Amino acid sequence: MTTTSEPYGERLIREGELLTFPNPRPGRHYWIRITLPEFTCKCPFSGYPDFATIYLDYIPDQRVVELKSIKLYINSYRDKRIAHEAAANQILDDFVAVAQPVAVRLRADFNPRGNVHTVIEVVYPDSPTGGLTE
Fold first, then answer.
1. Burial class for 102, CB neighbours closer than 10 Å (0-12, 13-18, 19+)
2. If residue 48 lies in a helix (H) or strand (E), which one and from where to where?
3. Residue 74 belongs to a domain with what CATH number?
4. Which pLDDT does position 7 carry in this prediction?
5. Domain-embedded: residue 4
6. Is 50 a catalytic residue?
7. Mean pLDDT by 10-residue block, N- to C-terminus, for the chain (134 residues)?
């Protein structure tokens, strides 16, 4: 007898949330750099898939984000219809809400589609220049 149940990976992604653990060196400013090369979402207008590499660099304060949880969180975007700009900003907002870092920079480097290459870069905390560099 065959049952149709949700694959465990889809369940883990659906139930996933960003988790943190105590920073082993609070008070020391150091960078954690995370690369997530398999980000996917869907164009809100066409429904076509969009692919990106997400670069997340942050200085933790009291909490550090657990890596498996960020993997599952990022995978939750694969069926969302969301613009590049909205995705980058939402990821940053969710990350800041959970991790409360000293600083964070997120760069979403989307694969070219239709001869257009888009890179969205957002930072926290906000600064007059956006804290962005070439």
1. middle
2. none
3. 3.30.1130.10
4. 87
5. no
6. yes
7. 75 87 96 98 95 98 97 95 97 97 98 94 80 52
Task: Give the range of the structural domain holding residue 73, as residue numbers without chain letter.
Answer: 20-124
DSSP 8-state class, residue 105: E
Of residues 120, 111, 115, 116, the one with CA closest to residue 91: 120
Residue 41 falls in the annotated catalytic set: no
Question: Could you give the CA distance from residue 98 to residue 29 in angstroms, rounded to a whole number?
Answer: 18
Q: Which residues of 6-18 are buried (b: 16+ CB within 10 A; e: fewer)?
A: eeeeeeebeebeb
| Token couple for 4 | 């149709």
Give the type of residue at 32.
Answer: I
The token pair that represents 102 in the structure block: 């000293």
* DSSP result, 23-43: -SSTT----EEEEEEEEEEE-
3-state class of 47 per DSSP?
coil
